[in-house]
Amino acid sequence: MATTVATAKAQALFPPPSRTFYDAKHKEEKSGVKFDGKTIFIQPGVGTPGTINVLGFSRDGKLLAAGKDFGRIVVWDVSSGDVVRVIESHQKIVSAVAISPDHRFLASAGSEENPAIALWNLETGKLQHAFPVDRPVVQRLVFAQDGTSLVVTENGTAYVLDTVSGKHTLDVPGERLPALSMDGETLITTNGQKFTIWSTKNWAELKSFPTPAKYAWPLAADVQQDLLIYGDSTVKQGFIAARINSNLPVLDKRQDLLPQFNPSTGFFASVAKSKPIVFGHSGGRIWGWNIDTGKTCISPILYSESGQLNADGSILVAAIDNGLLSKEKVEPAVEVWDVPALIQACNLN
Fold first, then answer.
1. CB of 115 within 8 A of CB of 109?
2. pTM above 0.85?
3. Which of 25, 168, 171, 239 sits 20 to 30 Å CA-CA off 159?
4. What Cα–Cα distance (Å) separates residue 173 from each residue in 151, 186, 199, 348?
């Protein structure tokens, strides 16, 4: 899944990762994706062993979860890189994972025949609850600060699920991919015509304003820095930075284009803490972008669809996988960068 990136000779490239996280040794399932040199054969709903579809940090950044094909979920201790929990969810291709702020639970969703959001006890690895969903596939799961409210995106519908009662505390039909602010206090959604900001304390609507483009998808918000990052697949810039208070796009000084935003594949964007630097993942690459200076930095093609920045902006991770057409074969894993060192190496200050 490579995407061509128009880059100048001076564009900075990511340094090697500081660490790499591997799955625990286990018996791999037979791949449901094959390539004979001319044709790709795909067995529906199965996937490829080792493929990481989604990554999710705990709010304190101490744990990292990976949702994989064949329903496998792996949780690492970020400081040591040790695998602390493996869950065989039987959800086929896992599409979303989230760890509760107190580390007690992990929520997951996938492509099983009877789709549900599963809530797992992280200490025991056992299923705690299963909540049916109406519109598979679930695209995103995010725990709010209270630890029991789970923000869910189901194919064009967003809602907040109370994992204790199983009831919805907020329903926002027609909304796309809600973005939780880095401080966890606000949620931003869009219905294609307007952005709406919600308080996660009581799920009250705080503000709404027209979207600057029909296909603008909110990706990241930092209220303290007055920044909203959204994706627009119809323009070559792909990722746009805007001011929340005025909804005026930030002056785009990019020296090089980033990989194109494509809502049909894996992507993310997050704002580094106290710095106007955005990190993201698209086109099979991880990247950084200083929106004030316009400097950008990209990784080699990782042949993956997942990346993530932890809540305090100190650690960046991305999955690496074997592309069907890649010449060099690698062991699927998660590559880890310490953000301060990455910013210095990429000259993003």
1. yes
2. yes
3. 239
4. 13, 18, 17, 39
Q: What is the DSSP letter of 71?
A: G
CATH number, domain of 101, equals 2.130.10.10
Q: Dihedrals φ, ψ of 278, to 5°? A: -105, 135
Which distant-in-sequence residues (6+ apart) come within 8 Å of 269 by Cβ? 219, 220, 229, 231, 239, 278, 279, 280, 281
In a domain, 27, yes or no: no
Tokens standing for residue 323: 């592309």
Considering the domain boundaries, does residue 149 fall inside one?
yes
Q: Which domain holds residue 145?
A: 50-173
Instruction: Summarize pLDDT for 34-57 with one digit per residue, the tens.
Output: 666 667 666 665 667 678 999 999
Which residue blocks in the chain are alpha helix, DSSP H? 339-346
Across 333-346, b (16+ Cβ under 10 Å) vs e yields: bbbbbebeebbebb
> Is 240 a member of any domain?
no
Strand partners, 150: 143, 161
Q: What is the largest CA-CA distance in the chain?
A: 56
Q: Which residue has the tokens 């054969």?
A: 41
Q: State yes or no: pLDDT of 15 exceeds 90.
A: yes
The answer to the question of residue 135 being in a domain is yes
- 3-state SS assignment for residue 70: helix
